[in-house]
Each structure stands twice: as C-alpha cells, then as structure tokens.
Amino acid sequence: MVTRAQVRSGFRSSRQVAWLLLLFSAVFSEALCTPLRAPIQPGATTQFHLSWQQAHAYSEVLKMRPAAARQWLKGAPSTAGSLLVADCLDITELLVTQDATRYEAVVEAQNRRLSALENSKEPGALCAYARAEIRLHQAAAQVVFSHEVQGAWSLRQSYQQMQAVVQRYPQYLPARKTLGMLQFFIGSLPESYRWFLKLLGLPGSVEAGLQNMRLAATQPNDFQLEARLILALLEETYYKKPEAALQLVETLHRQQPDNLLLSYLLISQLKKQHRTDAALVAYRSSPSGPDYLPLPYLHHMAADLLLYQGQYAASVRANQQFLQQYRGQHYRKDSAFKLYLAAWLSGDAASAEKYRRQINAGGRTVLEEDNYAQRFFEEKLPLNRILTRARLQIDGGYYREALVTLNSFQPSQATPLRDKLEAPYRRARAYQLLGHSDSARLYYARTIALAGNAPYYFAPQAALQLGYLYQTEGQKNTARTYFKKALSYPKHEYKNSTDTKAKLALKELE
C-alpha cells in the first residue's frame, strides 16, 4: 500500500513534471474546444455533445473572457456539460492568476459538482467524462498549490475514471484525448520519476497515448481542436516538429484575432522557434482590456524577447510588470535572474546586485528555469559577459551576430571550465540553427570531449543535439549512441527535460 510519505516524496522528486502535466491539462483541456461539428440548435439536448449555449461558453473560455462565458452559462441547461464548462472556467482563472486565496473556494465548488455528477441520473458519455475531467482539474489545483498527497489521489481517480469511460464508450473521442495525454506524459517520464505513479496504479505508455490523441485529433468531435493543439505541441516539444505546430497556431490566430489564449500560444511558439521580432509583434497586438482575464506570463515572455534584442531597460519594465500582476510562486526566481542579467549587461552594478539577492528572496524551485536561477545564486559562479550575450542572441534567433560575439571570447588557463565548455557549445548551436550541420557536429563533439563528467548541461545537451542531427540524416545507430550518452550524465541543470527528450527519441528509433 502507498503511504502518504511515499506520495509526498514522489511528488517532491518530480513535482515539475506533474505540475506541467496538470497545468497543461487544466488550462488547455476544455479551453481549446471550438466545436468542429455542426452546432446544436437551441433547445436540442444530447447525451454526448455540448448544448449550443455550452459550446458558446467554451468559446469564451478559449478567448479568456470569463464574464462572457458566465453569461452564456446562465442560459444553458443545468446538465453535465454546464458543470464541466463552469469548472473549466474556475480552474483556468485559478491557474492563470495563481491566486492562492481562491484555492479553497475552487476546490469546494469542484466537490459540489462532483457530488452532483455522482448523484446524477443523466445518461451518456458526457456525464461520465465530465466527472473524470473535473477530478483531473482538482488534481491540478491541489498539486499547483502544494497539496501533493490529495493531488496524487485525485489524479489516480481521474485516470481510472477516464479509463472506464473509454472502455464503456470506445467511440467517445474526448475521453481518448485526455486519457491519451495522461498516458503519454506518464510514459515519457524517466524511470526515476515514475515509481510513485506506478505505486498509485497509473501506467503510462507513449505509444498508447499518441494513438489515443491521434484518434481524437483526426476525427470530428466536440474537442477535436483541443486534441489537435495538444498533439501538435507535444510533437513540437518532444519530436522536433516545430513547423506543424506553428502553422496550426498561426492559422487559428488569423481566424480568431480576438482570442487571447491563441495569442499566447502564437507568442510562445514564435519565441521557442527563435523568431523574436515576430513574437514581439504578436505580443504587442495581443487582445487586452477589461473583458479579458489578465495573463501576466505574457509580460515575462516579452521580457525575455527584449533581453535577446539587447533592450535592457524595456526588458526590466516588462518583468517588473509581470511581478506586479502575478500572484503565484513560479517564475519568480527566473524573473529576478533575468532582471539581474538586464542590469548587469547594461552596466548597472547596483541594480544587478539587488536583483541577484531577489533570486533568493521568494518563489519556488519547481520549474527548471527557477531551479537554474537558484543554483546561479547559491553557487556564485560569475557569468562571462561575452558568452552570456551570445547565448541571448542565439535564443533570440540572431545566430550570425552570436558568432561575431563569440569571436571575441579568448580563453586562458584561468578561464573556468564552465566557460570553456559553453563557448564551443554556443558556437555549435549557432551553426546548427543556421543549417551548417558539419560545423555544428564539430563543436558539439568538442564540447563533449572537454566536459568529462562536469556537472553542467552543455555536454548532455550537445549529445542530445548530435542525436537529433544524426537521426535527421538517417544514421540511426549513431543517433542512438548519442541519445544514450545524453541520458548517461548523472547531474546537470536540465536533466529532467533532457532525459525525457532523449528517452522519447530512443523510442522513436525502435
């Protein structure tokens, strides 16, 4: 039997992955659900589909307009669909605002909805699906707000209930979407993070998860758009298919320019694909106003983009705006670190020291970005100004400028090992992103050779990228060797995400 201590320990060791899984599910599950079927006419009811009022309410949740969503719910029938939409709205507001003062009220409302569904005599798949989905939302709230034990059991209940929905209604595709997402994320976790989920009876399977999500993404259903977006984002993150994800988001954004959530996804995708100028255009044109739910994280992304461009004062203002609006504990350390970088690179030593101390003043180390910032503070390793500027230029898509910057880096015997590793790694990244594969392979190999077992992320990331390069060229055995090497490094800043990507790449080569 699983003890409370085991569950708590398990969530501590992999809280980052669990939080991302559940946050992604809660924010995008149900929110991205513009129906692709013909809309149900007023007065019609069904055991498998949303009513027309519920569908309109969903579309307003997608746009992040809570008042409009609630207005549509007033005229909707009091059924499982309405309970599901209402819960989607509550959990989205809670997780976007990260307002801990609202946590208890949201969980209590979820319990009332779950009780109503359990006692409901409403037949059909939608009722059973709503029950499992709301339970998953509750798991998200509990994990994000540090109630890991309750969150573990809620996740277990949701998983088992969603399995039952799929077994009873095998043609009901929305359940396959959510079950598939859970199967994929659990199956993609490194073994060291999966033990507590196995103890809870939550088996994962990347293959089964992808199969279920593809069924929901490729066949008409109420939530086909949501399934398409989730699948595209997973393939972009873990299988290096960025073009398809960006194309889908761009198309949807052109169709719905008033949709704040799609604006967020567009900015995020452009940022991940190093298209800083386009991302800032999308940020500045994103919808806003009193009708919209504030989305502070947009300003944090903009601060990064401005940092890439060397607009340090503007970057500071954007991150300060994020911190003023944001009520959560995640990304606070990362924001303080980025404030430090902006001040330090602009030559403001006094502000840089203030922001450096702010890293340790608050926030949590659940996410890798926050953990990296905390390690920077604790280890007191001095950054190299040239390498830091080159890194930011590469992140922003300014690859040729980064190579020029790197040309001015001249190591000596006194140069720290970390800097000696970072220089060839940054050069390799710039060449890879410019499409110069031979030069990229040369500098990645040099990084690995210099690193030995140093506890920095440059060598494992170099091995991962070499694996991708050789995989693209069809050299599967060599790619497999480098993916395994990426997994072999015992400790570095981005081990969780690196190991997950390497593991999935190896599965793809089987």
TrEMBL record:
The keyword Mitochondrion does not apply. It comes from the Bacteria. The keyword Flavoprotein does not apply. Keywords: TPR repeat. It holds the Pfam family TPR_8. TPR repeats lie at residues 460-493. This is DUF3808 domain-containing protein. It comes from Hymenobacter taeanensis.
